[in-house]
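Q: For a teaching handout, I want to show students what a protein-ligand complex looks like in token form. Below are the inputs, and the small molecule is zinc ion. Please produce the holo structure.
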Amino acid sequence: MSLGKATVHARKQKSLAKCHAMHHAHHAQSHLVGEGRTRGSSPMQTPVLVLNASYEPINICGARRALVLVLKGVARTEEEQGAVLHAAQVRMPMPSVIRLLEYRRIPHQTRALSRKNILLRDRNTCQYCGIVLTSGELTLDHVLPRSRGGQSTWENLVACCHSCNRRKGNQLLHELKEMKLMREPHPFTLHTSRHIMRMIGSADANWRKYLYY
Ligand SMILES: [Zn+2]
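A: Here is the structure, written as tokens, with zinc ion included.
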């Protein structure tokens, strides 16, 4: 396919301008124009669907990371989200769906246990009261408190708002009448990714065609 070559060629020509754009993408404060897919949140944080070279959906990442992958020539934009990044001499349409140019074998194993991945698994939703917040406004809660021997594991860590976190304190869940987990926390597997992709994707025409095949 000639698309790869075209991308590489374009990359050489624009490499300087792209360095600027990448700098801006990394530092987030570039001038963005247009409506993001999610109202009220920055287009830079909008989730982007990542497809393998084979068009199989394999991941979700933030728009900023997606933009960096496109600027590096690792991926190309398949669908745009409507907003445009203005940085230096470059006008970059913000991606909604990107596709890796080289096929990657995706292991079915669990992802790394991290704050970011737990928030992604829980869709930035407090697992006690159901409020959806930005990553910065959420904390992680040990379901079985650390003071009572609770471990930092996929099954014992959930996204939690600060007010639920304070309310729960060091108590056990069954000691608290009004607090209940929305769902059992599970490790983040490819199955989880697919489930999340479908949940987000069902509301987004750009994503839907890649998710139901
Ligand atoms: Zn809460």
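A: Two things your students might notice: Residues 15-27 form the longest helix (13 residues). Strands lie at 31-33, 47-51, 57-62, 75-87, 90-100, 138-142, 157-161.
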